[in-house]
Design brief:
The chain is globular. With 317 residues, it is of the alpha/beta class. Helix 7 (170-192) runs parallel beside helix 11 (244-254), helix 7 (170-192) packs across helix 13 (287-296) and helix 13 (287-296) runs antiparallel to helix 14 (302-310). The chain has 14 helices and eight strands. The longest helix has 23 residues, at 170-192. The chain has helices at residues 11-20, 73-82, 84-87, 107-114, 129-133, 147-157, 170-192, 197-217, 222-225, 228-239, 244-254, 265-279, 287-296, 302-310, and strands spanning 4-7, 26-29, 53-56, 67-69, 91-94, 119-124, 138-144, 162-167. Helix 1 links the parallel strand 1 (4-7) and strand 2. It has an eight-stranded mixed sheet, with helices on both faces. 48% of the residues lie in helices and 12% in strands. It folds into two domains: 4-168, NAD(P)-binding Rossmann-like Domain (Rossmann fold, 3-Layer(aba) Sandwich), CATH 3.40.50.720; 171-310, N-(1-d-carboxylethyl)-l-norvaline Dehydrogenase, domain 2 (Orthogonal Bundle), CATH 1.10.1040.10. The chain binds 1,4-dihydronicotinamide adenine dinucleotide and 1,3-dihydroxyacetonephosphate. It is found in: Cytoplasm.
């Protein structure tokens, strides 16, 4: 029985705690866990925490267990910086999906920056917290540059209903999870605006081309983008209203106010990716991402974005 610590008691951290309790004791830390006595997190309604999960608002002391970081992307850098003394030198598994707007880096680079002696890994792929928590079968990617550490984490974090595949391509895995959220907002906009299933398929495919273009420029392997953490998660998030990124786009497309309390990682990530694309001289090659950034920041209307995408010079696929 090997234990894990999960930092971040939102929907995803809580869902991971529920499934990982099958393998051993889980400590779930959150900054606001007033719900702990009820054993049900309002962010994951209808799910009762199993007895093997200890919920706390006191950061657990250092031990040999892996630490899963399940915080929103834009607060992860500050959290790592503030708690480096407790986290450095340990196995840290980033579970957030996004690009940090302050540094234009993904979670593994933030770990490297603030906790240079840590062993960084990434857990990502197609999975809604509610599905994992209900024990529905799910397959994810565990990425770690150190193949031996990755294999050990793969074994420790797989459960009878959570099947992990492993890769050493950390950049590919984390960029797939980050970039698909941007495309999911676009897919939601398309569906909300009534532009049709054909338009969504076109957008997902051309969005995927952008994901591969951007990630490979940053050293990712194209085949990683074709796996669970890229294409798999893109398909899930662009086709399900369970996705907060998709729902955000849906509201925009319908002309309704989006839920501004939800964690919608694609918003900041779109801005960060546009900035990074400019630095990488990829500016003209990320049109969907650029339009998501422009529409969500209110710089162009949906109609203008559609026209801009449809009237680009014709090119080879
Ligand atoms: N919900 C899902 O289905 C999945 C989520 N993820 C990823 O997991 C990450 C977290 O998402 P969720 O848990 O869904 O979000 P959530 O919105 O359910 O929860 C976010 C949690 O972070 C806490 N938090 C915010 N700022 C904080 C800070 N400065 N310090 C400490 N805690 C802070 C909040 O109190 C809240 O409990 C995101 O990057 C998301 O993309 C990944 C896969 C599935
Ligand atoms: O990453 C997810 C599914 O794999 C969750 O999607 P949302 O963050 O859009 O809800």
């Amino acid at each position: 029985m090997s234990g894990v610590t999960i930092l971040g008691a939102g929907a995803f951290g809580t869902a991971l705690a529920v499934t990982l309790a099958a393998n051993g004791p889980v400590v779930l830390w959150g900054r606001d866990v007033g719900w702990a006595a009820a054993r049900e997190n309002p962010r994951l309604p209808g799910v009762t925490l199993p007895p093997g999960v200890t919920v706390t608002d006191r950061l657990p002391p250092r031990d040999g267990h892996p630490v899963l970081l399940a915080l929103p992307m834009q607060v992860t850098g500050a959290f790592l910086r503030d708690h480096a003394g407790r986290l450095d030198g340990r196995r840290l598994v980033a579970c957030s999906k996004g690009v940090d707007l302050a540094t234009l880096r993904g979670p593994s680079a933030l770990i490297e920056r603030h906790c240079p002696a840590a062993l960084a890994a990434v857990l990502t792929g197609p999975s809604f917290a509610a599905d994992i928590a209900r024990g529905l079968p799910t397959a994810l990617t565990l990425a770690c540059a150190d193949a031996n550490v990755g294999a050990a984490l793969q074994a420790q974090l797989s459960t009878p209903v959570l099947r992990l595949y492993r890769t050493t391509d950390v950049a590919g895995a984390e960029l797939g999870g980050a970039l698909k959220n941007v495309i999911a907002i676009a897919a939601g906009i398309v569906m909300g605006a009534g532009l049709g299933d054909s338009a969504r398929a076109a957008l997902m495919t051309r969005g995927y081309a952008e994901m591969v273009r951007f990630a490979t420029r940053l050293g990712a392997r194209a085949e990683t983008l074709a796996g669970l953490s890229g294409l798999g998660d893109l398909v899930l998030t662009c086709t399900s209203a369970q996705s907060r990124n998709f729902r955000h786009g849906l509201a925009l497309g319908r002309g309704e106010p989006p839920d501004i309390t939800a964690t919608v990682e694609g918003l900041a990530t779109a801005r960060a990716v546009v900035q990074q694309a400019n630095r990488l001289a990829l500016a003209g090659q990320m049109p969907v991402t650029q339009m998501v950034s422009a529409v969500t920041e209110g710089r162009v209307s949906i109609a203008e974005a559609v026209q801009a995408l449809m009237t680009r010079p014709l090119r080879q696929e």
